[in-house]
Design brief:
Elements (H helix, E strand, L loop, with lengths): L21 E7 L12 H15 L3 E6 L4 H7 L5 E4 L7 H4 L2 E4 L5 E7 L15 H14 L3 E7 L6 E2 L4 E5 H4 L10 H12 L3 E5 L16 E5 L2 E6 L6 H14 L10 E6 L4 E2 L2 H5 L15 E2 L7 E2 L3 E6 L5 H11 L4 E6 L1 H5 L9 E4 L6
Parallel strand pairs: 1-2, 2-3, 5-6, 8-9, 11-12, 16-17
Antiparallel strand pairs: 1-18, 4-5, 7-8, 10-11, 13-14, 15-16
Length: about 375
């Protein structure tokens, strides 16, 4: 009987924190007409602004379908590297690799199963065949090992502190439309084996009406070892109010893998944001894709930011809250410059800045 391949953890690999140094950031180019209105032109401009801001900090790769290659190359600044990398949509956090590093300086990746956030039971589009090949292609481009994980999981469903602690939500990872045959203990063991973590902190739910089934990266993330930022609502009439307090209760009653109590920083959520009539009318309507209707509430959150080497790129969503969120993030990241990017067009597609980016960690001295 063949011997199973040793897990990443058994081989010494682990996932570093997002706030650790990067070599690069990976993105994809939006063009899907049932996700992005008006032929994705407004979304493409938002993606250009995100890529431009991150490129101040590290190399940015943007994967593009062939038919949009010239357009993307003309729109993106010269320092951004445009590569042909076909996809079904543009959510690199979820369809791209989860990178791992080794103490000896090697880089590897985890190739999770992907079913478009639920497959035929609540998934957001069909098919997702091109998305499933992205991780394999990036592994080939970089010439690094690829560990195939026997579990459906998206990158936005997890955050790590780089010191053994992972945070996620029960709503997503224990959802029957992902891995109905796995219980919580089995899922925890897979996370330990493939990400090299020791402690898993389970928050009950993600943000209200998050169409990813509650990705943690829209609700809560690590900003330093022992420190997290949590989206927050004081409005008792808003369903998000109860979700935030459930999460806070867990965070304040647990310890990380090093035995530390967590310091929780509250980041106010924007006022409820809704799809407007003209925003919905610019979309193709397909039976195989998630409907986006006038009046639908969107899961807006300032926690959906990207931590680069020298910048933090945050979404600008609500003029009444943007400055407060900016000030809090700048205080949390005194050694980085916080850059706000108008991000409503990304939110209209169902996610935000963290969802469209994926960091590639910097390698060690043996590179």
């Amino acid at each position: 009987m063949p011997t199973a391949e040793p897990t990443p953890r058994a081989q010494g690999f682990a996932m570093p924190a997002e706030f650790a140094p990067h070599d690069a950031c990976w993105m994809l180019w939006p063009q899907r007409p049932d996700t992005w209105r008006f032929g994705a032109k407004p979304a493409q401009q938002a993606f250009v602004e995100v890529a431009t801001a991150i490129a101040e900090s590290e190399t940015v790769y943007v994967g593009v379908n062939d038919e949009q290659y010239e357009n993307a190359r003309h729109q993106l600044p010269p320092e951004v590297r445009v590569v042909e990398l076909s996809s079904n949509d543009a959510w690199m956090r979820d369809v791209g690799p989860t990178f791992l590093t080794h103490p000896d300086g090697r880089l590897a990746m985890v190739d999770w199963e992907f079913n478009a956030w639920g497959g035929l039971d609540g998934g957001l589009y069909f098919p997702w065949d091109k998305d499933k090949r992205i991780r394999t292609k990036i592994a080939e481009m970089l010439g690094i090992p690829r560990f195939t994980a026997p579990v459906v999981l998206e990158g936005g469903a997890l955050h790590v502190d780089g010191e053994g602690t992972l945070i996620t939500t029960e709503e997503c990872l224990l959802n029957p439309n992902r891995n109905p045959g796995l219980n919580r203990e089995e899922m925890e063991q897979l996370l330990r084996d493939y990400l090299g973590v020791e402690k898993v902190i389970w928050l009950p739910r993600g943000c209200h009406l998050d169409e990813t089934d509650g990705h943690v990266d829209n609700l809560c993330c690590f900003v330093a070892p022992g420190e997290v930022v949590l989206t927050w609502s004081d409005d008792e009439d808003d369903p998000q109010h109860a979700i935030c307090r459930e999460a806070l209760a867990v965070l304040e009653s647990t310890f990380d893998a090093r035995g530390r109590e967590l310091c929780v920083h509250k980041l106010p959520q924007p006022d409820p944001l809704y799809i407007e009539e003209d925003e919905a009318s610019g979309l193709d309507r397909l039976d195989s894709s998630h409907p986006r209707r006038p009046g639908d509430r969107m899961a807006g959150s300032y926690v959906n930011f990207y931590i680069g080497n020298s910048v933090v790129v945050m979404p600008l969503l609500d003029p009444t809250c943007d400055e407060q969120a900016y000030a809090i993030l700048q205080e949390l990241f005194p050694d980085r410059r916080v850059v706000g990017v108008p991000a409503r067009e990304i939110l209209l597609g169902g996610g935000n800045i963290h969802c469209i980016t994926q960091q590639q960690p910097r390698l060690g001295p043996s590179r």
